[in-house]
């Protein structure tokens, strides 16, 4: 059962993010109004509605972009709209045109992630582009999925198509979700090989790297709590050592010490060859991982290992302290 109280800015601003998953709270002034709080501190208003025998959760908006009173006033409107039967649109639309609409309305990613998704779409599901959405059959979709090399990519494209068709049903461009009828490709997921002992050996192996730039970049994969692409593209102008911040991302104490000891004589924190930043030093990483006894370890495995264990908090200073506590726990070599 959701925790109930009268929503007000002071309480919502200071809600503690859960360690894992999400929490739900409920407004006593408008009991139909609820809020998700994720382990990353994101707060989202929503309502629940039973539609066609299924319990649906309808998103209203994110807090504080939407204030509390606006969310309360939106509840009856959202519930009324959710109850309306979607009218099927008779006008035909090409799949590629509907895809543009879907990407604009439903996909919210960073520029790099968005571009990567578009490249995958243009590579794998082009055969559907010139077909009318209403004329596409389940067999057409199955043929596209079957032609994709690699089970993991085929599964991702099938999940994407299922989401596209779900949106098509919601907006009245399709009567049913054709992709829901297909069996999902079976994936043999790789077991991530990192644990506390492995992190200790990895830390020692990184410290034996000769290149100062590469060594510091690899250490920031541990100290920075960010993906390799974010780490490698760090700019000095984005760092504020007075507030221990990297843009809006708190820096752990170990990250601050490491970065302050680097030469600040360029645009990029980790410069690569030419005028760009470090991109993908995979050969150096392979040597480090092999030396640490974890040859299958990827750079992003480090971030995922740490992100799962970090207690995410909405307050930046609390989050920074949680980063420090976790690193102290994991890198306390006396206990290993």
Hey, roughly how much beta strand do the residues contain? 5-15%
Structural class: alpha+beta
End-to-end distance = 41 Å
Helices, by number, come to 13
Strand order, main sheet: write it out: 1-2-3-4-5
Would you tell me the overall average pLDDT?
88
The largest sheet, given as strand count, sense and whether it forms a barrel, is: 5 strands, mixed
Question: What is the second-level CATH architecture of the largest domain?
Answer: Orthogonal Bundle
Could you outline the blueprint of secondary structure elements for this entry?
Elements: E1 3-5, H1 9-13, E2 22-27, E3 34-38, E4 43-51, E5 54-63, H2 68-83, H3 95-106, H4 111-124, H5 138-146, H6 151-171, H7 196-206, H8 212-223, H9 228-232, E6 239-240, E7 245-246, E8 249-250, H10 253-260, H11 282-291, H12 299-309, H13 316-330
Parallel strand pairs: 1-2
Antiparallel strand pairs: 2-3, 3-4, 4-5, 6-7, 7-8
Helix pairs in contact: 8-10
């Amino acid at each position: 059962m959701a925790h109930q109280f009268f929503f007000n800015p002071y309480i919502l601003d200071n809600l503690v993010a859960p360690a894992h998953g999400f929490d739900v709270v409920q407004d006593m002034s408008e009991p139909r109004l609820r809020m998700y709080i994720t382990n990353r501190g994101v707060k989202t208003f929503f309502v629940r509605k039973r539609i066609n025998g299924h319990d649906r959760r309808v998103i209203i908006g994110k807090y504080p972009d939407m204030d509390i009173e606006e969310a309360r006033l939106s509840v009856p409107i959202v519930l009324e709209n959710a109850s309306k039967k979607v009218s099927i649109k008779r006008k035909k639309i090409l799949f590629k045109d509907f895809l543009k609409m879907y990407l604009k309305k439903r996909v919210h990613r960073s520029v790099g992630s968005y571009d990567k998704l578009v490249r995958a779409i243009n590579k794998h599901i082009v055969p559907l582009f010139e077909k009318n959405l209403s004329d596409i059959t389940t067999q057409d979709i199955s043929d596209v999925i079957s032609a994709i090399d690699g089970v993991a990519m085929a599964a991702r494209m099938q999940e994407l198509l299922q989401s596209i068709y779900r949106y098509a049903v919601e907006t009245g461009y399709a009567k049913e979700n054709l992709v829901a009828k297909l069996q999902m490709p079976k994936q043999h997921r790789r077991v991530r090989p990192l644990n506390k002992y492995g992190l200790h050996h990895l830390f020692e192996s990184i410290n034996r790297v000769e290149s100062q730039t590469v060594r510091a970049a690899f250490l920031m994969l541990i100290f920075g709590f960010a993906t390799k692409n974010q780490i490698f593209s760090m700019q000095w102008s984005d760092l504020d050592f007075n507030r221990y911040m990297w843009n809006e991302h708190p820096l752990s104490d170990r990250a601050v010490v490491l970065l302050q000891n680097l030469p600040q004589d360029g645009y990029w924190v980790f410069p690569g060859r030419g005028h760009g930043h470090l991109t993908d030093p995979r050969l150096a990483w392979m040597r480090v991982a092999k030396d640490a006894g974890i040859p299958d370890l990827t750079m992003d495995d480090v971030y995922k290992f740490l992100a799962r264990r970090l207690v995410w908090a909405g307050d930046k200073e609390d989050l920074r302290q949680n980063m420090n506590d976790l690193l102290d726990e994991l890198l306390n070599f006396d206990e290993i």
